[in-house]
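Prompt: May I have another protein with tokenized structure?
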Amino acid sequence: MERSTTAWYTISNIAGIDSPALVLYYERIKENIRLLKQLSGNISLLRPHVKTNKIAEVCRLMLEEGITKFKCATIAEAEMLAQVQAPDVLLAYQPVGPKAQRLAALITTYPGTHFSCLVDNKVAAASLSQVAVAHQIAIDILLDLNVGMNRTGIPPGKEALDLFEYCLALPGINPAGLHAYDGHIKETVPVKRQLQSDNAFAGVQALAATIQEQWGITPVIVAGGSPTFPTHLHRAGVECSPGTFVFWDRGYKEQLPEQPFDYAALVITRVISIIDEHTICTDLGHKSVAAENPFPRVYFLNAPEATSVGQSEEHLVLKVPDAAVYAIGEVLYGVPMHICPTVALYERAIVIKDHEAIEEWKVVARDRKITI
């Protein structure tokens, strides 16, 4: 089989790139950011999640486009954002134990960045209050609401209202808003996805209205991820926080066909062995592509006929119609089904411009700690 050497993903100096490797396509990243801005209609309501990219240079590209609010999941991601002088960072996680102390350290170390975090219970709120008082700081918090994900959060309703009131009385913390992640909504049909999103969000709207009525506070609301951010765009004042958009992946390309984003991050692998007339082996093991889901875990742009049949730490075995058309050392360009954890497997990414590898970007926030 003759494979294209001019397709958008091919790399002219691929011979100098060892495999497996994570490669990022600069122009496509820029275009995905531009598309997000265009879709949003109001850049002030964008709060991208950086858990997907974990790379300072990618965050700078968003800052250059006027995006000033960000969401993250770890202290390292928060520090990465502070180091690129992001003005507003939401730690979309409830800091418990040493994490609360680390958040306080971030706030004192990087005064140019406004940090906030999530809370979903009184014990964590009281502990965070004690930490804030001890450090003589004030921490904005958002109530983490469970709207169906059933992972963290408190159901919107009386219990959440009581928690908000409890936090109002605590020193050192300021209940400023509500956070609702609806990652359980995976409907492919946009109209059905919108209906499910509206149903999940109804309790958030009701809670926000009650807070406004009782205390005169208009809570900040942060909602959604990549699948549902289009469903929240029409909601007045609601900040949307997609993350995968910046790189995109095969899973969302199939699940969300109406969204305009393109693949901007791939994994490259080489054929290292021909097993028989229908089986080959590559060097893309568990340590090189997210392996938390069943097969397929990767789709090969220049070998769409290849299907995964086995994988171990350093090997991926593929079934193909005719192994004779593959050569030892041949490069396959793969789109991960799930890009977020795939990025975290790599210490650095290789940046591609005009088909050429030009530099490396460190995946700095894959580490659990940068300095704090």
About this structure: The domain at 27-246 is CATH 3.20.20.10 (TIM Barrel). Residues 45 and 236 are 9 Å apart (CA to CA). The radius of gyration is 22 Å. The chain has two domains: 14-23+261-366, 27-246.
